[in-house]
Amino acid sequence: MPEDSIYLDYNATTPVDPRVAEAMQPFIRESYGNPSSIHSFGVTARIAVENARKQVADLLGCFPDEIIFTSGGTESNNYAIKGAAFANVSRGKHIITSSIEHPSVTEVCKYLETIGFSITWLPVNEFCQVDPADVEKNITPSTILISVMHANNETGTIQPISAISGIAKKYGIVFHTDAAQSCGKIPVNIKDLGCDLLSVAGHKLYAPKGIGALYIRRGVVLEKLIHGADHEQNKRAGTENVIEIVGLGKAAEISRQFAIPGSQSPAESRQPGVIGHQSLVIDKESTITRQSELRDLLHDGIKSEIPEIRLNGHIKERLPNTLNISFPGIEANRLLDEMKEVAASAGAACHSDRTDISPVLSAMGVPVKYAMGSIRFSVGRFTTGEEIQRATGIITSAAKRLSYPDRHMTIPAPVLSGIRLTQYTHGLGCACKIRPRLLESILKEIPLCNDPDVLVDQQTSDDAAVYRINETTGIVQTIDFIPPVVDDPYAYGAISAANALSDVYAMGGKPLFALSIVAFPDKLLPIEVLMQIIKGATDKAKEAGISIIGGHTIEDTEPKFGLVVTGKIDPKRIIRNSGAVPGDAVILTKPIGTGILATALKRGLLTTESEKEITRVMSSLNRKASEIMLEFPVNACTDITGFGLLGHLSEMTTGANIGAVIHAMKVPVLPGVWELVTANVIPGGTKNNLDFISGRTTWNSSVPELLKIILADAQTSGGLLIAVPDKYKGNLVDKLHHSGIDASMIGNFTDEHKKIHVKYI
User: Which spans in 562-672 are helix H?
Assistant: First the structure.
């Protein structure tokens, strides 16, 4: 991060407190013993672990033996919920939770539903609070567990945990609360909360990531989640992570000193001479008060400039550091991109294939126009008043530029060389296509054309239309219109042009001319950017042997560019995507993975070399491949774009009413793609592509899950997918290679009805 960046995302993760890092150092360099060993190295490590256990217990006001160390909040929640569910299954299989829980709770509950458990999802009110009365009225004789978070991670709203725990105790039901967001921010005392299980996450508490704790009340029995040796009182197997356990302990000690005093731990209250909370030196301006003031300073500052913002969450019963507000009419991620100097989190995201509104905001009934513009700001221990003042100016200026560009024409235009086009759009290239299932339903509603000279229309999945002029000449026409897929304006224009031209080449046509389609935010970006986009497209059109002779432009909040390409084609030699026959070889002319790499580029994860490579691949014309293809008796062809390799192959098999076998190991993949998918870099549209092909595709049992994602990658300007009689495949591939085209034979079409088999051998 640049030095002048302002971090307002403490709810996502806190920095490690320097005192925590200092406490961990000896156990990195010197005291590296295994705490289960009996020699001096092991004894030192064991003492450190048990000291940390007491430090965490003191923070929560419980006995040290009620603390079990875990790998973090997610494991703690998994252990609490699964452990309680499996330990009590003989009593019943009903669990009550809320509709605003963290995924580490909701996903566990959804899993339990698949194996026979019944889950009640409690609603919340407009302030994000659960009504204890709803908890009680949903209890049944088979209810064995209630899990409601202490404080919501998005809105900061604090739940009435004491009231809910009282209800659980009344009916003899185990009660768990996820306190990952509340520990260290407000008093979290077991005696006051009354819970049986409580989860702690170290990285929300100024400790390292990868460490957490679970409070288990004495007498509560859980089924073990991790089996092995008898570590952690035989409740959680695995050699203790001494380094980070020490860090969590120190973080708990510091949080106990900096937060509001609470009641003594049971151990302290029963041991004479032990100094309790009353002796702690608490600054007059407590952490809670200070963070509340910073939060409110930010809120008031933004509201004074943009009065139409909306506060999400409870106005009083919320974490002192958390501010969730909505900017109506602005997409949250777009605003975050515009205020690069401030780190915060979006409450919604508009992807190419869907609009994701936070389940929390949905449960609260926040209207879509507000939910889409929801951003969570969270301050922390190291936030300063000067940072809040500066952040207020950055946030309000960015919001005004997006909401009222005409009123702020005096804002200096960005320097051309520093512009990253992918930051001015929520989607990327062909990943922004309407999801395939929805598109199919839309196309079915379009009236069919009865003109006999219309040879190709929307009845098929071809990306271009063909109209017959006479027996020897037809007109082929296509349109493509995409948001930026790379940062460089010139390269974006070239890629957009190559992408549009590809549809004509795939049908065996020859382009004649093109018209441009432009959407451009001329109040946000200098006109020189648009000039570079058009120059890139014009140069690519020139390479194709045509000119861009006109077009249409509109002002928009995001840059988008495309071409309408008109070409000519022999009506007797139209290569459609539905002409493949069983036995045909499947030839691919470009490697896949451009969508994944482009997504990495938008996130700032791509090297300069990789950016150059995907730009080269996406901007290279399919012209030569098409010309070579026409020298062979090719039966079908399509180009690989937004629906991914398997999505477009599915269109081919469905159109021809046949099947296909794909050898996944033979599919060429661009360098770096596997590593990025491993890091969960997945473009919008890819998961919908997988859903689209799910009923049409079978996978060899050894196909890795990550490879499935790669094969469904929502690409831009990919290669041609060609169906050619098997006896010609060698000659076709050789000729493509001789022309510098990295083509591969990746499978064959079969006579199985509309089924694709993916093999990994």
Answer: 594-602, 608-619, 623-629, 644-656
Q: Is 659 helix (H, G, I), strand (E, B) or coil?
A: strand
Cα separation of the two ends of the chain: 43
Query: Residues with Cβ < 8 Å from 222, sequence gap 6 or more?
Result: 79, 80, 83, 84, 87, 197, 216, 235
pLDDT tens digits, 379-400 = 999 999 999 999 999 999 999 9
Q: Which of 109, 128, 350, 430 is catalytic?
A: 350
419-466 tens-digit pLDDT: 888 888 877 766 676 666 666 676 667 777 788 898 888 777 788 899
Question: Which are the contacts of 45, defined by CB distance < 8 A and separation ≥ 6?
Answer: 27, 31, 32, 33, 34, 35, 37, 240, 242
Contact 644/565 with Cβ under 8 angstroms?
no
Spatial separation of the C-alpha atoms in residues 131 and 599, rounded to whole Å: 41
Tell me the torsion sign for CA atoms 731, 736, 740, 746: negative
pLDDT at 411 over 50: no
**Cβ pair 758, 664 in contact under 8 A:** yes
Considering the chain, what is the average pLDDT of its residues?
Answer: 89
**Between residues 750 and 415, the one the model is more confident about:** 750
Residue type, 624: K
189, 199 contact by CB (below 8 A)? no
| pLDDT at residue number 193 | 97
Q: Express each pLDDT in 23-42 by its tens digit.
A: 999 999 888 888 888 898 88
Region at 210 (left for phi over 0; alpha for psi -120 to 50; beta for the rest): left
Rounded to whole angstroms, how far apart are CA atoms 346 and 692? 28
| Angstrom distances, CA of residue 564 to CA of 476, 537, 539, 549, 733 | 11, 12, 16, 11, 30
Question: Which string of b and e fits 556-570 if b means at least 16 CB within 10 Å?
Answer: ebbbbbbbbbbbebe
Question: Is 350 one of the catalytic residues?
Answer: yes
CA 405 to chain centre: 29
Going by their DSSP bridges, the two strands 636-639 and 720-724 should be labelled as: antiparallel
Q: Residue 673, Cβ neighbours under 10 Å: how many?
A: 24
Q: Give 390-413 as a DSSP string.
A: HHHHHHHHHHHHHH-GGGGTTSPP
